[in-house]
Amino acid sequence: MPIARRLPAAIAALVASTLLLTGCGTVTPEGGADAETITVVDDQDREVTIDGPVERAVVLNSYGNEFVRAIGAGDTVVGVDRASINRLPYLPVDEADVIAEGLDQINYEAVAELDPDVVIMPRNAVWREAAEQLESFGIPVVVATAWDYAVFDETVSLLGQVFQKEEGAQAVTDFSSEILDVVADRTEGVEPVPVYWETVDPYLTVLPGSGFHAIIEAAGGTNVFENAAGGGDEQEEITVDPAEVVTRNPAVIVHEFEPSATPTGQERFDSLGAEITARPGWSNVDAIKNGEVYLANGWATSAVAKSIGALYLAKWLHPEEFSDVNPDEFLERWVVDFQDTDFPGANEYIQQYQAGA
């Protein structure tokens, strides 16, 4: 696929490695062409053998559940973590199917009672403990880290092999590449726009190494805190001095709050926008003076390894170059075609806030 070869560095970081789509795992027939044994190499370089086909799966992490559903294997999910059921109410599970309160709080007896063919979890879960605890039940654990934009293609490919949904996995990666192609084509040669990206908590912003930093650059922006010291964790975030935001004077402010498919509600947007624009001294920031403050539910802007977020941001930063591009249409396709659920409208997840408007 030519995309990865011609995209600029920031986009290539988001695409990760489309050319390595099949490098994360393999399906190994054993005992003849009709055998159902599936052998994959997960993202911790562990060879895992699964008695397929996978008809019952426990999937931890909401992004993992989104990807499993997107490739066409959502009907196999019989157990999830608390965050997944809270964020994704359209999953085919209910309260009785919650087998983990967190990625480090797994009820292994409950998992065993569900009798899954496989358990999927990200690398920041207690996967070593889980593999050891579930080994006696004959339940394999596959590590697939769907929240990590840098291994998006490999993760989708791995899940496609686990569930034998390779065509569905290819459709997901093709959709992401389509979005990033649009972003790359329209941002080539543009003047970068300074951006302050805030995540969930007040003054919590992103650093190089973060997926959010990557989409700022991909969208034709510059992260006003790109040279800040700190971070070091796998999310690469830092809490900054509010006065420093004023000094760095971003032209655009984005606040992404926790992801949830449940419509946000206008009160949340209004109160959040009012809080941000009323921060002491911030009335002098260009983004607030010019009404360039954007509030986003992470279910929308972090979807498809943040590629949809990159498209929205590019539209906000460079409206002329994207005058004929509607990011809402791509979000609707992701929700309807890949998540197989109703789309209440982009305004339920993303809004521009203008103080006094």
From TrEMBL:
The keyword Protease does not apply. InterPro entries: ABC_Transporter_SBP (IPR050902), ABC_transptr_periplasmic_BD (IPR002491). SUPFAM superfamilies: Helical backbone' metal receptor. Gene3D superfamilies: Nitrogenase molybdenum iron protein domain. It comes from the Bacteria. Keywords: Signal. Residues 1-22 form the signal peptide. PANTHER family: PERIPLASMIC BINDING PROTEIN, VITAMIN B12-BINDING PROTEIN. Residues 56-325 form the Fe/B12 periplasmic-binding domain. Belongs to the bacterial solute-binding protein 8 family. This is ABC transporter substrate-binding protein. The keyword Signal applies.
